[in-house]
Structure formats: structure tokens, C-alpha cells
Fold Ion-translocating oxidoreductase complex subunit C.
Amino acid sequence: MLKSFFGGVHPPGFKTSTKNKNIRPAALPKKIILPLSQHTGSSAEPVVSPGDYVEAGAVIAKATGFISSNIHSSVSGKVLAIEPAAHPVLGKCRAIIIEPELQQKRLDSIKDCADSGFDPGKLNPADILDAVSSAGIVGMGGAAFPAHVKLSPPKNKKIDTLIINAAECEPYLTCDHRLLLERPIDIINGIKILANVLGVKKCIVGIEDNKCDSAEVIRNASILKSDIKVVPLHTKYPQGSEKQLIDAMLDKEVPSGGLPFDAGVVVHNVATALAIYEAVALNKPLYERVVTVSGDCIKDPANLLVKIGTPASELAAECGGFIKKPKKIIFGGPMMGVAQPSEDAPVIKGTSGILFLSKDIAGEYNEGVCIRCGACVRACPMYLEPTTIYYAAKKARFDIVNDLCALDCIECGACSFDCPARLELSGIIKYAKAMIKK
């Protein structure tokens, strides 16, 4: 039987335009913009200056604490400036701007293939953590939490299960699906590396049942690894949320205010597992990633291997330009992604997709009146009462909002999607959470 969870919604998939398209490298951009904050935690500190020459893979900014991440140059070229620039989440952020040279060079230490005797199970866990930290790897599903921190659970938390999140429940996005189809052996090796450093034997890959081809490929790739199990999931949003995955696959509940650690689980995105394999086996830092570029405005939607720091405008041109004028540009998926004021924002480590949507898809709506239908309550995967929180927040009664457990909201947008009155439930609850924390 397919695994699932309480609540959720079923938005249209919009995946057909890219799900059967192989990953292809994007052209070298004219300019690279590398924000110093591409991760949860403190910003990295530059170790280069304007005028310096850098090679692809070189460290250009170092982590400034345990919860931070190194940043590497994605191209070889000249550092033009270190100044505030567009950021897809923060709006603006200090960034290192690089002009790529025509003949690209990369660090000699980066390998093209793993050594013939590479065995993930025999690696030293401390060496794995050092490699992951040095490579600047973060969660690539969108949260961008430094991976070395996630792989260092508190000593009092017993981890018994590793879940690999391959649900990809957001509409339009197919980059993880293509990675599963095109890089299965490397992903399996990445999973084995993760299992090694965590000291777990139980490894589960969760894949929604609208991606049966990728589930079969991964199942075949892991056929000799009995400790890696592929579990089919019901296609439903937000199936890819950590807490919902744990609920669906293990029938465990992460406590209110808690983390997956508290349920004995670590969850990593499939792209993160691949990046960790490349860091450990190939000595390759995280300076490029696969991004789905799609939407009804794009002439030729694609899955592209993109240099981190590439502006959205260059990826739109890479895909043939526009056939309609975009009404909205979104980094990520349409449910939890972030709308952009312009095409200047660059790809960062957590960017899984860039969507260019016309007014036909991303039209504006006027809020109506709540009719107490309960659709938002049925849709909420966290068992909250969105309209009650919404009206309390509107009255600035954040004491009530806090009592209603608004901080447990995962900001998935399912309530807003299902609301017939088009109330801005998710946005107001996000605002209320910020006010409670303040």
C-alpha cells in the first residue's frame, strides 16, 4: 500500500514539459553572483578581493561558525566586486561577483571519477564530515541547512533511520526525478556514505507513485544492498516535507517544536546525497547543481546543470526565451517558492527550480469572506486551524496565535490553495510566526 499522511492537497503537476528531458549543462554565464548567505546560519566571510583570479572549485568565502557553510567559485575568472546584489530569498545580500574567463579551468584536486577501490562503508566518519563541511554542502531541497550539522546529531539522540527524500511533490519540478534516472549508482553510494557517518542500517528512499520509472531504477541499483529500501508514496502535496515523510513512512510523529532527531531520524534530499558522494569520492565542492527551468512563459523548459551564481535571466535565454510575458518569477516550486521582483536573482545552493509564469497561471485574486467550510483544516498536514490563527493575527492577538501552535506551521501553503474565499492564510500565518519570534 502507498504511504501517506493526514491532510495535504492535490495541485496540478505541470511536470510533463520537463520530466522526460535529460539533464544538460547550461552555457557559461556572462557574470556570476555568489551571495555570502546561501545557507541557514551565519554568512560566510570572503577570502578573496576584487581583482583576484580564482579557479572553479576554489574557496572564496569561509564559514564563520558551526552553523555556516563555505562558498566556492563556480567558474574560473576575475573577481569584479564584493558588494550588495540580488538574492532570491533575502532580497539583497552581500555577494562576490565574478567575470568568467572563456577557457575554464578547475582545481587539479577535483577528480573525474572515483578510485577503483572506493568503498563508502570503509570510510572514516570523521573524514566524511570534514569532506562534507569543506565542500560547503547544504540541504538542496530548499532549506539549505548545512549538511555537516545535520550529520552531527546530539549525543543524546539515537538515530536509527536515514530517509532519502525523493518525493519532489512541488508542481513543475523534475530535477530530482532526472537525477534518480541518470545518476542512480552515485546516489546509492551517497546514501551508503550517509549511513556510514550516521551509523545506521535502516535506509529508506521515498518516491511518489507518479515517478514509478525512477523508483524502479533506484530499486535495481540497490538490489545488492538489502539495507536500502525504496518505499512508494501517495502523490500528494506536501509529501516531501520532513515531518510528513516521517509520519508516512515510519508512523512516527516529530514532537511540537522538535526536529527529526527527536524521532530518531535524519532526512536528506536526493540531490544532497549525490553532492555528498561527489564531495567524498571526487573531492568536488558544491559549485553547480541541477535546476528545473519551466513555466508557461518559457519556450523550451529544461533540466539544466547550472553554475551556482548564474542569474535567472541567463537561464531563461538558455531555454529559448519567453513566449509570453512573465507575470511572476518564482525560485523553487509554486507552493513554497519565493516570488522575485526581477530576473537578476542568481541560482543559489538551495535553488531547485526557476518558474516563469504568465497571468493565466499566476493571476491575482481578491480575498473573499470565510464561510467556515473547514477546507483549510482538512488540508493542513500539521492539524492546525488556519482561519482561527489568521483572524487572531489580523487583530494582532499574537498571544492567541501562539496558543494555537502557529509555530508548528510548515508554511506549505496547502490551506491557501484549498480556501474557496482565497484568504491569504499562509502569508498571514508566516507573518504571525515572525511576530511571535520577535
User: Anything to note?
Assistant: The chain has a mean pLDDT of 94. Residues 207 and 232 are 5 Å apart (CA to CA).
